[in-house]
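Why this split exists: single-chain examples teach little about how molecules sit against one another. For that reason, every record in the complexes split bundles all components of an assembly together and asks for one structure covering all of them. Below is a record exactly as it appears in the raw files.
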Amino acid sequence: MAALLQHPCYEEERLRRVADKLPCREVQAGTLLSVMGGPEQHSFPSIFIYGHRASGKSHVIHMLLRELELPHATVSCVECVSVALLFEQVLLSLFGCDAASLLPRSPSLSDFVRIYRQQCSHSPAVQTRYIVMEKAELLRDMDANLLPALLRLQELVQDNVTVILLSEIVWDKFRPNTGCFEPLQLHFPDYSKGELQQILAQDSHPSYSAELYSSYINILLGVFYSVCRDLRELRHLAALNFSKFCEPLEEGKVKESDTHKLWRNIEPHLKKAMQTVYLREVSRSFLLIAAYLASYNPARTDKRFFVKHHGKVRKTNFLKKHEKTSNHLLGPKPFPLDRLLAIFYSVVDSRVAPTASIFSQISSLVTLQLLAQVGHDDQIDAPKYKCAVSLDFIRAISRTVNFDIVKYLYDFL
Amino acid sequence: MSKRKVKEAHLPIGECISEVQRVLRERFCHQQLPERLEGVDSQYKHLLELLRRTAVHGESNSVLIVGPRGAGKTTLLNCALRELLEEKEVKRNLLQVYLNGLLQTDDKIALKEITRQLSLENVVGDKVFGSFAENLAFLLEALKKGDRSSSRPVLFVLDEFDLFAHHRNQTLLYNLLDVSQSAQTPVAVVGLTCRLDVLELLEKRVKSRFSHRQIHLLSGMTFPQYLQRVQTQLRLPDGFPDARFSHEWNGSVQTLCEDKSVEEVLQRHFNSSKDFRSLHMLLMLSVSRVSTANPAIRPADLLEASRMCSADPKANILHGLSILELCLIIAMKHLNDIYDGEPFNLQMVHNEFKKFLQRKSHSIYNFEQPVIMKAFEHLQQLELIRPVDASAAKTQREYQLMRLMLDQSQIMEALQKYPQCPTDVKQWAMSAFG
């Protein structure tokens, strides 16, 4: 059977290793590789890879770049709050920290191109250099000239460089008014149900057989596939609920082969889990609740509300010493990030599995103007926030997650 | 007279393929200059004459090269320059400054770049100038030859010319064009732009200093000429190391272009756009499929490349939605039909969806509010629906008004292609359109 991943410029063995790590994405990897071409050949100046979240775009391109040892720079546009970070990241990855340090403060695109060209003349590209931009849709919100310039970077810097943009938004929504250099578009299709089964079943648990896990995945997909086809979310759900699935096995009530009984045990649980399936949704609500509490509760009361087994607190202490002016009249107070996180983790308890995207959720709350960022620009290490929503709003949010916020508000003691 | 037999070099097939890829990629991806330009003879002559008048005869000039994206403006200029620079005098004397509207976003940056490209950084040093005009005059003065008799001619190329018109007071344009009208320094100002209405963007005082000379690259190509161009673009040049392979390849290119299905595909591409760039993308995708197992471009390769180029991205995205998300879109479509395109919010969509659920006893689709909310949000993240009012962040999410960014045909097509779409969902979708 001919391997799908083949290229005259790369060893077969190497490509086979790469293909093994990209299950169900061999066709896309093959197309991408053929477009990229051999390392010394030119490729199209810009390539736009689009497809749903968790469809393997980032995974495939990075696997190819790493395993085939091609020079590249990766930029996550989410993290680039300013273009300077973007330029720095590219110069650093392609040319080293000396080049990155040549950037002036608040560099313009002109500075970036100039330095790139200088570096190129010292070390011209022997192999195609790749610049991968993740969440490329955010480039639309940056300076208007950035996206069109990146699309034709090859021409502007006169170097063998290709810019690869990754996004879940279609290209039509990127195109500037007066047009631009059209990138080559590659679509990464969604995984089919069978492919999801195949990939998820690979994460088998050491203590149980592969067949058991496979039938578990089958049941999981049966429940969730109609609402969720995101591989990452499904993987998360699978990990979360597997122990419950195995409960009857652990307790010795059923055997591995009693699939029907196992199904009967887990199915209602999974259906209920669907409410909290969107843990990001829930954790975002809790984040906002924590922010509200941080804004309207004085810091010194945190221990009373949020530390378990705090022991007896003398209530009189609070009432006597300070004039009880309602914080709700004074408005929200700023709080540092670590206080927010502390309250968040205490409030959330075990209800929400920790996700890595807390910070991106915080920035999304800021974007939605539910949180306001305060403080000076040079306090980058210690950002402060303020909660910008009303009491009614936060009470509504709390209702949706079954949390009694009033119990935790100092003003309502 | 003995015929000298040229020793025919034969490379192994793998190396031939690599070489083909290298050559064609240089042509399609790297915008390599062609040996001869086709179909733009008069424009080429006009531009060359103009540049020569500045470079050789010391005349100042300004011209705009106007044409849609991918029409070949930069290629035209670079070919003309290539010919011009073959003359020793020109090569020795002519100075070139390249500015790009995307990079030099204001006049200060532009001035720095001009200084840098003229290698006058040391001459300028720390001087501070009162105005742009002063600075520019200083630079041009510094270019004068030692005996002060004449100055070296300077070519200013302004790519994305229309963007310079957005600078404050159009100072750069005003000063450059002003210099091109005075007799001091021989200066040629060549602007490249894709905007046909570029002159409307210029202020009166700037416009009056412009020579109003425009070179248009609006293609009047016919389909047979287009086919011919495809052939020329795919042919290997004479200097190819393996002559036999090159001969075979060129033969296969000819056969390819005579194929009926290929002609159809090319006709479709020709109808949508005649420019070089989209052609290069199509050919690049076809060439990328060439390998040792497949050493020539077959009609199937071109067809597949065409399919990739003309795929509807939104349809592709719709294919990957969950069935719940698809149902929500159908509900939105129904609302659009009933209420004539009025914006909707999640509550309304959920309501409409519930009507469908009530008609059938479909408990499997009876999802709770948070799940529906999340599906709705996902559609928003994909920009398939968009809030009517950008500042609607203050309203609660369930009540934010949205619009659907898909049309009827896209939704129906998506339903046809959707994997294992339940029949009742399809019927529900059809019911509104019947």
